TrEMBL record:
Gene3D superfamilies: Dihydrodipicolinate Reductase, domain 2, NAD(P)-binding Rossmann-like Domain. This is Saccharopine dehydrogenase. PANTHER family: CARBOXYNORSPERMIDINE SYNTHASE. Residues 5-136 form the Saccharopine dehydrogenase NADP binding domain.
Length: 412
């Protein structure tokens, strides 16, 4: 069918590339390009020998000219941006210049401020439309599958969705007192920011980790979860008509929160540069360098993730609730692709999103979030490629749980 250029060779890219190779009917050829070429070569060495032809290249994705030269050489049908959110705009610029389709799994972030906003990328809408190319934003799990779940719920089960709660539970244990499951810099930025949710047309801000509930997750059990801001809230609040409220909850253990607070208190999570021995360093980037590489967690992580959305709304004038979720086993993922479930649950939808664009099922000039496309073919592919989903028409609703706004111990 076609050729993809994958940018990035980290945890998520490794899974997506494994899956592209499994889906060789669509991905006849892939080029893996990243800052450190040896990581691309390692992936090629592991995966060569199948039907997909693999090549590798070195690229600095902050440099538009380098990207344009690479795209012109490879001539891909799509660029899969699996590098970091800082590179989204340079890669989009290069796609525009070469009239090549684009996809990513995370919204653009300026290096100096944590914003989690789509506005920079939505500003490309007209230019992509005029160039006749598709940009698919946020095709990971959350954002990504959570948006597809929302579009699917609206299409098949509701006349109107009024409430959405996204519940992201990681019941995995890697045995370290503190480590992050994906890029530590992005992860810590996300969880140390203020919480925020959308209600009746307004954003309501909370302190970090201020709102806590305990939920009994299928196949994982009871876990503490905290209200966070997460980027799909912004697009879903706009794209699901009639929505009254949307929130996002993520589970964290006590040890993770205690360490994070201590690191915050000593200034290690700051993104403000400081001078150290005559050199400017960003404390959070230094912290990343001393923490375990998320890719190294694969063999040691046991347990399951359970991520999904609970919807409440109306169908034929009646109240209706619906919960759709995926359960993923860390060790099963490791056996299949050599990565833990966090990279797996992001890398699989990244491959599916790219395949949707390449096969023309999700091909529409402009810049779109996943929920703006027909969810049905994506939902089918989730079942096929390792992320089967489960439906529950009578779920426990978050609003029926006892309120617990008390901060966890040692966390001020
Ligand atoms: P990693 O840090 O493991 O990998 C990032 C990769 O990008 C590395 O190979 C890195 O190269 C490469 N890279 C960084 N800067 C550049 C550059 N300037 N030029 C070329 N390559 C570069 O991150 P993850 O795989 O964990 O995450 C990848 C993306 O997925 C992130 O944007 C993250 O936010 C997103 N994500 C999305 C989720 C979702 O559900 N939607 C969930 C989890 C992650 P090098 O090896 O040299 O450092």
């Amino acid at each position: 069918m076609g050729k993809a250029l994958v940018i990035g060779a980290g945890g998520v890219a490794a899974v997506a590339i494994h899956k592209c190779v499994q889906n060789s009917e669509v991905f006849e050829e892939i080029c893996i390009a990243s800052r450190t070429k040896s990581k691309c070569d390692e992936l090629k060495a592991k995966l060569d020998g199948g039907k997909t032809k693999i090549t590798t290249a070195q690229v600095d994705a902050n440099n538009v000219e380098e990207l344009i030269a690479l795209i012109n050489e490879v001539k891909p049908d799509i660029v899969m941006n699996l590098a970091l959110p800082y590179q989204d705009l340079t890669i989009m610029d290069a796609c525009l210049a070469t009239k090549t389709n684009y996809m990513d799994t995370a919204n653009y972030e300026p290096e100096d401020t944590a914003k989690f906003e789509y506005k920079w990328q939505w500003d490309y809408r007209e230019r992509f439309e005029q160039a006749g190319i598709t940009a698919l934003l946020g095709s990971g799990f959350d954002p990504g599958v959570t948006g597809v779940f929302s579009a699917y719920a609206l299409k098949h089960y509701f006349d109107e969705i009024e409430y959405i709660d996204i519940l992201d539970c990681n019941g995995g244990d890697h045995g370290y007192p503190f480590a992050t499951n994906f890029n530590p810099e992005i992860n810590i930025r996300e969880v140390s920011a203020n919480g925020r949710y959308w209600e009746n047309g307004e954003w309501i801000e909370t302190k970090p980790m201020e709102i806590k509930r305990t939920y009994d997750f299928a196949e994982v059990g009871e876990k503490d979860m905290y209200l966070l801001y997460h980027e799909e809230l912004e697009s879903l609040a706009q794209n699901i008509p009639g929505l009254k409220r949307i929130r996002f909850f993520m589970t964290f253990g006590q040890s993770y929160l205690m360490h994070l607070k201590a690191l915050e208190n000593v200034g290690m999570t700051s993104i403000e540069p400081i001078e150290y021995e005559g050199k400017q360093i960003i404390p959070l980037q230094f912290l990343k360098a001393v923490l375990p590489d998320p890719a190294s967690l694969g063999p040691r992580t046991v347990g399951k993730t359970n991520i999904g959305c609970i919807f409440k709304g109306k169908k034929d004038g009646q109240d209706k609730t619906y919960y759709v979720y995926n359960i993923c086993d860390h060790q099963e993922c490791y056996k299949e692709v050599g990565s833990q479930a966090i990279s797996y649950t992001t890398g699989v939808p990244a491959m599916i999103g790219a395949a949707m664009v390449m096969t023309g099922k999700w091909n529409k000039p402009g810049v779109y979030n996943v929920e703006e496309f027909n969810p049905d073919p994506f939902m089918e592919e989730l079942n096929k490629w390792g992320l089967p989903w489960v439906e529950d028409f009578n779920p426990v609703l978050v609003d029926t749980l006892p309120e617990d706004t008390k901060k966890p111990e040692l966390v001020r």
